[in-house]
Amino acid sequence: MPRKGRGGKRRKVCQFCVDRIKQADYKDVNRLNKFLTERGKILPRRITGNCARHQRQVTLAIKRSRQIALMPYTTE
Fold it and tell me: Is the Cβ–Cβ distance between 14 and 49 less than 8 Å?
């Protein structure tokens, strides 16, 4: 029996699957910024809750948007 006062951990869900988005778009900078730290590092799956498929797409989209200067590589 679980002890009172200690809530169970909720499983994180993939935001792309919830919103039924098939492909992560590199031009959608507002959505991609949620998957970066303040310093510009890409957050891992275990923190963001993305599924493996969408995490790969997010990583690729962030790298593409950095390449064409929509997103910064680092922050100063």
Answer: yes
What's the distance, CA 7 to chain centroid?
A: 25
Q: Which tokens go with 9?
A: 């951990």
- 74 dihedral zone (left: phi>0; alpha: psi -120 to 50; beta): beta
Mean pLDDT of the chain: 89
Phi and psi torsions of 36, nearest 5°: -120, 150
Q: How many CB atoms lie within 10 A of CB 24?
A: 22
Domain boundaries 15-68, corresponding CATH code: 4.10.640.10
Average pLDDT over residues 15-38: 93
> DSSP label at 42?
B
Instruction: Name the residue ranges covered by the structural domains of the chain.
Output: 15-68
